[in-house]
């Protein structure tokens, strides 16, 4: 597998689970651990916990909404900047481009970490290309991921910018209902619904459920994040997830 492959979990994952899981993710050779920033959880707390028990693996947030957590409020202490990819997005801001542009400028002065922009539409992707270190994409098929990443590189005009794809992934049938609920939720958001209509596929077509689906993304984005969808998000579920997907990556 030429494309670096990472693992994604949510900030609602208990810190004890993160502490147990992160070293295993590192030992299995994954590129990074990405933690979604959701209300009720703190992705940065999760990354601090992971940083304390690992040595090399990348640490990333996917993504912190700046309308809920302003750039100046982010506590990056305890997370090595050289390992951190700080993902930021607009959330539900009335002026999303301005908010993210201001956030990028403020964070450039505050950290040496890579700054990754959650980018759904073309204008936010252009902002990522011109001022960020990468763009984080969601719900794309392999063909769409390749096209979108190529467009990002072209817009960057020689700047080094990575196209990173978050792909919901399951390893057992018991997780299928969870995946279907998440897909339906995203399809209900007007911006995503319009994007799916424009691209010509539904959310479930942009998911991974076996080794062949992992291999299909090889060479499409610059980094593939296997966002863990499990029956209960327990440590046992997540350990089974990372062990199984590590085998898929090795066989891809």
Task: Describe this entry's structure for a reader.
- The protein has 252 residues and is an alpha/beta fold.
- The chain is built from nine helices and nine strands.
- Helix 3 runs parallel beside helix 4 (122-131) and helix 4 (122-131) packs across helix 5.
- It starts with a strand and ends with a helix.
- The mean pLDDT is 97.
Describe the secondary-structure layout.
Layout: E1 5-10, H1 15-27, E2 32-36, H2 43-52, E3 58-61, E4 64-65, E5 84-89, H3 96-110, E6 114-118, H4 122-131, E7 134-138, H5 142-156, E8 162-169, H6 176-187, H7 190-199, H8 211-216, E9 223-228, H9 235-251
Parallel strand pairs: 1-2, 1-9, 2-3, 3-5, 4-5, 5-6, 6-7, 7-8, 8-9
């Amino acid at each position: 597998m030429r494309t670096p492959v990472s693992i994604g979990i949510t900030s609602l994952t208990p810190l004890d689970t993160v502490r147990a899981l992160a070293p295993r993710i590192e030992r299995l050779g994954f590129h990074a651990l990405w933690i979604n920033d959701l209300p009720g959880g703190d992705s940065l707390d999760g990354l601090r916990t992971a940083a304390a028990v690992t040595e090399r693996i990348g640490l990333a947030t996917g993504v912190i909404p700046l309308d809920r957590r302003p750039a100046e409020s982010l506590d990056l202490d305890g997370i090595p900047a050289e390992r951190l990819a700080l993902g930021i997005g607009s959330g539900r801001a009335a002026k999303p481009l301005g908010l993210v542009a201001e956030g990028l400028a403020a964070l450039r002065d505050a950290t040496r970490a890579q700054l990754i922009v959650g980018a759904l539409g073309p204008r936010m992707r252009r902002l990522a290309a011109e001022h960020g270190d990468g763009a984080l994409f969601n719900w794309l098929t392999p063909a769409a991921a390749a096209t979108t990443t190529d467009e990002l590189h072209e817009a960057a005009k020689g700047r080094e910018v990575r196209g990173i794809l978050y792909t919901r992934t399951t390893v057992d049938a018991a997780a299928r209902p969870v995946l279907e609920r998440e897909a339906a939720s995203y399809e209900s958001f007007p911006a995503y619904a319009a994007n799916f209509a424009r691209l010509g596929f539904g959310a479930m077509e942009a998911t991974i459920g076996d080794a062949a689906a992992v291999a299909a993304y090889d060479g499409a984005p610059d980094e593939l994040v296997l966002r863990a969808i499990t029956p209960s998000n327990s440590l046992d579920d997540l350990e089974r997830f990372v062990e199984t997907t590590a085998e898929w990556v090795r066989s891809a």
